């Protein structure tokens, strides 16, 4: 007769996670770096290399109008396809845009810009959904604090993403040459390199694991498009009535405005008068380096709402100091200070941008984890 001591103890072991969540984050980071180092640098060049009839400027305008229009439907597409498929679909727009720059005409650039507006709206909603879903899964599988994991994953992503400014501008500086008469040589080789980089990034996307969370579930195929749109609009309205999203929207709006300041005013009014056109790439590289470092650091320090509040406040304070400096005491200087001041402003502004990118994504992931696709629509 067996005694209690002889009865084997059955110890339940937790199930082994089937997905390598950290690997997926690394793949996502590298894929976006390879894609956006090309697109970011190409975007910087559009208004200077495609000057005939203002083709470059008009193409960018068409792109952002298209982006605004299709953003309304982006969450619907991501829910229908799943975030992994939507990410891969989104990369095709960037590939087409870079390819169009190899033969820039109205017949190539305008359609490519229209399609990129659609693709960009898809890829960014899918990115936020996929990254946050991965963070939730990793936290659940290993019994970790969700806020901490979301912060770390967002910090890694935005840190890598911000470095595209450095890498893309260095490639541009290495391959482009200013010719006599104001022309530029090496653009064809540059865009071929960019196309190769984007192709590699797209291939990497294919190695992402498919996510099966609630936010990834496919809608019933019997549901009509019109009813899906109506449901989407109702869900957007319900979310818009949530006091939490109403409090976050001003931060999202400011994040967009401070990025617009970099592209529109910083390069034109601060960098160019002091460092010239050739200095724009170097200044943006400095901006990107500090953006990347701060994104990584802010992600590591994130563990919940209180830490997000402190970090965002610190980043906003830095940018407020820069704005007060520009409004009250800044003037174009000569000599060493003429070089240092624009770079210092870029570095400080990059710190603020890194904070906002990382913390806003983490905040949405923490507060709206039950409807990630729709919540990340507000970041567009």
From TrEMBL:
A cellular component annotation (GO) from this entry: membrane
InterPro entries: Ion_channel_UNC-93, MFS_trans_sf, UN933_plant, UNC-93_regulatory
Keywords of the record: Membrane, Transmembrane, Transmembrane helix
Keyword check for Transcription regulation: no
GO biological process: potassium ion homeostasis
Principal localisation: membrane
Pfam families linked to this entry: UNC-93
Membrane association type: Multi-pass membrane protein
The keyword Transmembrane helix belongs to this UniProt entry's keyword annotation: yes
Domain of life (superkingdom): Eukaryota
Localization: Membrane
Transmembrane domains' residue ranges: 27-45, 57-78, 85-102, 114-136, 157-176, 188-208, 280-298, 305-326, 332-351
Family: Belongs to the unc-93 family. Belongs to the major facilitator superfamily. Phosphate:H(+) symporter (TC 2.A.1.9) family.
Name of this chain's protein: UNC93 3
Organism of origin: Olea europaea subsp. europaea
């Amino acid at each position: 007769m067996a005694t209690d001591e002889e009865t084997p103890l059955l110890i339940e072991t937790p199930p082994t996670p089937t997905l390598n969540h950290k690997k997926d984050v690394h793949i996502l980071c590298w894929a976006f770096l390879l894609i956006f180092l090309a697109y970011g640098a190409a975007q910087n060049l559009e208004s200077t290399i495609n000057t005939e009839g203002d083709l470059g400027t008009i193409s960018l305008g068409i792109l952002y109008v298209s982006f605004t229009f299709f953003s309304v439907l982006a969450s619907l597409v991501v829910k229908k396809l799943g975030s992994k498929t939507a990410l891969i679909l989104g990369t095709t727009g960037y590939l087409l845009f870079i390819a169009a720059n190899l033969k820039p005409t109205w017949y190539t650039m305008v359609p490519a810009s229209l399609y990129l507006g659609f693709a960009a709206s898809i890829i960014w909603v899918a990115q936020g959904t996929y990254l946050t879903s991965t963070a939730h899964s990793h936290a659940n599988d290993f019994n970790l604090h969700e806020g901490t994991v979301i912060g770390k994953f967002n910090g890694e992503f935005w840190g890598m993403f911000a470095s595209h400014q450095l890498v893309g501008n260095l490639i541009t500086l290495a391959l482009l040459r200013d010719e006599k008469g104001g022309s530029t040589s090496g653009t064809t080789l540059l865009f071929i390199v960019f196309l190769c980089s984007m192709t590699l990034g797209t291939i990497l996307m294919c190695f992402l694991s498919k996510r099966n969370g609630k936010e990834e579930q496919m809608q019933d195929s019997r549901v009509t498009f019109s009813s899906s749109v109506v449901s989407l609009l109702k869900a957007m309205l319900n979310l818009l009535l949530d006091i939490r999203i109403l409090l976050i929207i001003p931060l999202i709006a400011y994040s967009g405005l401070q990025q617009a300041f970099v592209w529109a005013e910083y390069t034109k009014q601060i960098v160019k008068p002091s460092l010239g056109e050739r200095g724009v790439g170097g200044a943006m590289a400095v901006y990107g380096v500090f953006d990347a470092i701060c994104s990584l650091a802010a992600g590591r320090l994130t563990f919940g709402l209180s830490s997000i509040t402190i970090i965002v406040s610190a980043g906003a304070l830095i940018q407020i100091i820069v704005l007060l400096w520009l409004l009250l005491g800044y003037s174009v200087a000569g000599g060493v200070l003429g070089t240092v001041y624009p770079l210092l402003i870029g570095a400080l502004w990059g710190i603020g941008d890194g904070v906002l990118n990382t913390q806003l994504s983490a905040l949405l992931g923490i507060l709206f984890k039950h409807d990630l696709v729709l919540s990340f629509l507000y970041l567009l």
